[in-house]
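Appendix B. Worked example

We walk through a single record from start to finish. Start with the input: the chain for Ubiquinol-cytochrome c reductase iron-sulfur subunit, Arcobacter lacus, length 166.
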Amino acid sequence: MSNKTNRRDFIGYSFAAVAAVGGAASLVGMKQVWDPLPSVLAGGFTEIDLSSVKAGEPETFTWRGKPIFVLKKTTEMENSDRDLVIGEDRYTVAIGLCTHLGCIPAWKKDKWKCACHGGEFNPSAKNVFGPPPRPLDLPPFEVKGTTIVLGNEGPEYKKIADTLKA
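Next comes the structure step. The output line below is what the pipeline stores for this chain.
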């Protein structure tokens, strides 16, 4: 075998190099097209300051077009595995859509009531009456001090979500 590279081998190596560079460039372009835009990613996160929430009075926030119920529990309200505990305070965080047909329940004295079919959820967002098949859903969140960031799955979310699966 000789050390000389003939013309045919050179053209073959050149073609392989151009094809490899073109293939890599195509993969980078496809990944950029498939990734969500930064504006879409930014819209997927909502920060809620829990220090302004009053005990016993749920507040409703919007995240990705869905209502999010946040309730700071009073001492009279039952404790639950589903509660988010920050310091001495206990909170219920839930997606405010009835798990029966997706209606938005309203807060009446000490529970959420769905006007559509009479479903009721206690302050821990558990279904206690009516046709809803399960508790209100838990949105993914991450705790940063007294603020929660909806859209990120933090350790507190994972702990609560694991208790709901059991």
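Two observations about the output. The two ends are 69 Å apart (CA to CA). DSSP finds three helices and eleven strands in the chain.
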